[in-house]
Amino acid sequence: MRFISPRNNDFPDPVSDFEAAVFSFCREWNAGKAHFMFHSSGSTGKPKSIELSRDQMACSAKLTGAWLSLNSRDIALMALPVEYIAGAMVLVRALELDLDVLLVDPCQNPLLHLGNHQVHLASFVPTQWATILSSSVDLLSIFSNAKGILLGGASLDPELEKRSSALNLPIFHTYGMTETVSHVAFRDVRLGDEIYSPLPRVQIRLNERGCLCISGPMTGQAWVETQDMVQLVDANSFRFLGRADRVINSGGKKIFPDVVEKWVHAYRMAQDWKGDLMMVGIPDQFYGQKAVLFSTIDLDVDKKNQLIDFLKTKIPSEDCPKDIIFISHFELLPNGKIDALKTVALYLERP
Predict the structure, then answer these.
(1) Are 52 and 38 in contact (CB under 8 A)?
(2) Is the separation of the CB atoms in 155 and 243 below 8 Å?
(3) In the structure, what pLDDT confidence band is assigned to residue 39 with cuts at 50, 70 and 90?
(4) Which of 41, 289, 312, 315, CA to CA, is 20 to 30 A from 27?
């Protein structure tokens, strides 16, 4: 763990590649670098190189500062890789808003290394947060003065949501991507609903496919079209349905894997199954696309039926997978996320 003030260029000698990357980014920002290059995660397609301007990133940082009422000398925890936009924006917020930073090399439970330090702002991916909640760390002590605990990069399963809500801490599940310079919308986990609200000065609308479009200071007021299908609750809020490029068109019915997988993972955790499941569509003569679950857990017939019976209590029966198929492993992207396209392609190519 290392405590730094990123506006100060007099950094200590780095003791890890992570610290070296953090110090390098801060020096470039302090020197006035105008553009930065990032890569999208590539979860559902080939990763893209995306150039963001200094002004875009500064605007995003100021929007977050206004939303969470961040003040100079507040402390931010940095435990995400700086090569991705989520990690870089932790530093930009500190640089633009004059925050101090606690550096912890990215790991599953960065709070183990904090000692008695308090944190006002923290960003985690859900796997980190799940590990933290399963540990003996005194969260109420670390976050007693917290203004925002931001969770992003993936969905929250119902059990993780329930445990987070019970803490009564300012935990927000955020929505955003590289093109929108990290989060642009949020939902308060304490409220127990799935409705996202845009940050101040951020506008939303739908395109003709039902995908979310976003405009705001961090996009230079240009409209960014996403691949995410949402339901507009009103002009200033929305409910996430799923990625357009993951939607399964089965017999004329659109099925959103993200919605189904939320309950699949809740059941998996309740049963303490070791492994993972993913909903995909595969070619089928009758359905066009047949919705199936790929599972790295070798389930017998009874367990498969029990899972399907559970799903029918949570979602329409026509949205339930038609089969559960065992595969030895999921193909992964360099950032550790599942490469859905390659996994399906290799399954279809099998002898």
Answers:
(1) yes
(2) no
(3) confident
(4) 41
Q: Are residues 39 and 130 in the same domain?
A: yes
Indicate the residue type of 233: V
236 pLDDT more than 90: yes
135 Rama class: left (phi>0) / alpha (psi -120 to 50) / beta: beta
Residue % of the chain over a pLDDT of 90: 80
**Pick from 42, 35, 2, 29: nearest CA to 332:** 42
Helix (H) or strand (E) holding 24: helix 17-30
Q: State the pLDDT confidence band at 115, using cuts at 50, 70 and 90.
A: confident
Are 255 and 133 within one domain?
A: no
Q: How far is it, in rounded angstroms, from Cα 328 to Cα 294?
A: 10
pTM assigned to the model = 0.85
Q: Which domain holds residue 165?
A: 2-244
**DSSP sequence for 310-347:** HHHTTS-GGGS-SEEEE-S---B-TTS-B-HHHHHHHH
What phi, psi does 202 have (nearest 5°)? Answer: -100, 130
Looking at the fold, whether 210 and 145 belong to one and the same domain comes out as: yes
Is the pLDDT at 11 greater than 80, yes or no?
yes
Kindly state whether residues 33 and 178 are assigned to the same domain. yes
The predicted-structure confidence for 276-318, as pLDDT tens digits, reads as follows 999 999 999 899 999 999 999 999 999 999 999 999 999 999 9
> SS3 helix, strand, coil % of the chain, rounded to 5?
35, 30, 40
Instruction: Give me the helix-helix angle, 301-312 and 257-271, nearest 10°.
Output: 120
Residue 266: in which H helix or E strand, if any? helix 257-271
- 3-state SS, residue 260: helix
Residue 311 corresponds to which tokens in the numbers above?
């799903």
Q: Which DSSP state fits 106?
A: S
How many structural domains comprise the chain?
A: 2
How many CA atoms within 13 Å lie on the side-chain side of 158?
Answer: 14
Q: What is the mean pLDDT of the chain?
A: 93
Which of 198, 215, 244 delimits the end of a domain?
A: 244
